[in-house]
Design brief:
Length: about 325
């Protein structure tokens, strides 16, 4: 039987009408498909973005350099959206019903990714490398860096400029992401144990500084840090040990610079806003919106936790 060659226009129509998982499969089908998809990457990305993602998702989850490698950027966006939905759902699902610190969905996680992207881009430019050295993380490569104060100041300026560009509607999910998701990894955690094996008591200032620094670490690493820390007991232990190790290895001056940067960044979101900060993001939501979000978190999603001990996954210390 003679082979029939399908016109490229038909193949492109199929690709543009596909989902992200189908797009990934088509790229791996053969070299000609891969080359065709890469050649028309910008138009394919634009078509799939418009069809599958809302404007607000595309705005907050798109990579900064998405035009350089449009298909790669689209796949990264899809991974980020799915991870953010999982993080937001687990957070909402497992808050105490009497706790009013709940908030709206996954958009805030996308904003955290953009904050992390800004820092990672500037760190790579400063240290002049395209990819991390083997075994390093973005938060470890600056440990002991001599021009750290200037670098952190430059990063903070750009992150604050980005926060100031956000709308009032963007700020509520950002509050949720910082107050509920990020803080679950550090809130009231000393990350240090006394000789009796129990959590070591710290005074309020030391505890606040450590909380701020851990916030800096999570924001520098990005939301994948949260999802890995929550996915299993092993992930929780690995990332807790990583936090402890970095606390020990960092010079005190660097620790103070980084925690101060995180504190200022977190506080900056309230600057020039019409309303003073509520006691929690829950205060920004009416009951109907909250009930709808909680219903979404508890059902209608395909991702389930792989580890049942929620409190440990959310980062609470052992008693």
């Amino acid at each position: 039987m003679a082979r029939i060659q399908v016109p490229e226009t038909i193949i492109l129509d199929i690709v543009q009408a596909s989902g992200v998982s189908t797009l990934k499969a088509l790229r791996l089908t053969c070299r000609s498909f891969y080359n065709l998809i890469e050649a028309y990457g910008s138009s394919i990305r634009a078509s799939i973005l418009q069809r599958l993602y809302s404007d607000i998702v595309a705005k907050h989850f798109s990579l900064q350099n998405s035009q350089d490698r449009p298909i790669k950027a689209l796949l990264a966006l899809d991974r980020r959206v799915k991870a953010a939905e999982w993080i937001a759902a687990v957070t909402l699902e497992n808050r105490n019903p009497d706790d009013d610190s709940n908030g709206p969905g996954n958009i805030g996680i996308g904003i955290l990714w953009r904050i992390s992207d800004i820092a990672q881009k500037l760190v790579r430019e400063e240290l002049q490398f395209d990819s991390l050295p083997p075994g390093d993380r973005i938060s470890t490569v600056t440990r002991g860096y001599p021009n750290l104060k200037e670098l952190e100041s430059q990063i903070l300026d750009q992150q604050i400029a980005y926060i100031h560009s956000l709308t009032e509607e963007d700020m509520t999910p950002l509050d949720f992401a910082l107050t509920c998701c990020v803080s679950a990894l550090y809130s009231q955690r000393a990350f240090e144990f006394g000789p009796d094996g129990r959590v070591k008591w710290l005074d309020d200032l030391d505890l606040e500084n450590r909380e701020n620094w851990t916030m800096w670490l999570v924001l520098r690493e990005g939301p994948h840090f949260i999802s890995h820390a929550w996915k299993s007991a092993a992930g929780n232990e690995e990332y807790t040990n990583f936090i402890v190790a970095e606390l020990v290895r960092r010079p005190e001056e660097q620790f103070l610079i980084e925690q101060a940067a995180a504190r200022r960044l977190a506080n900056e979101r309230w600057r020039n806003r019409a309303n003073s900060p509520p006691s929690s993001p829950r205060g920004l939501l009416d009951d109907d919106i909250y009930d709808e979000l909680l219903g979404w978190a508890r059902g209608g999603r395909e991702i389930e936790r792989s580890f049942a001990k929620v409190q440990q996954c959310l980062g609470y210390p052992p008693l």
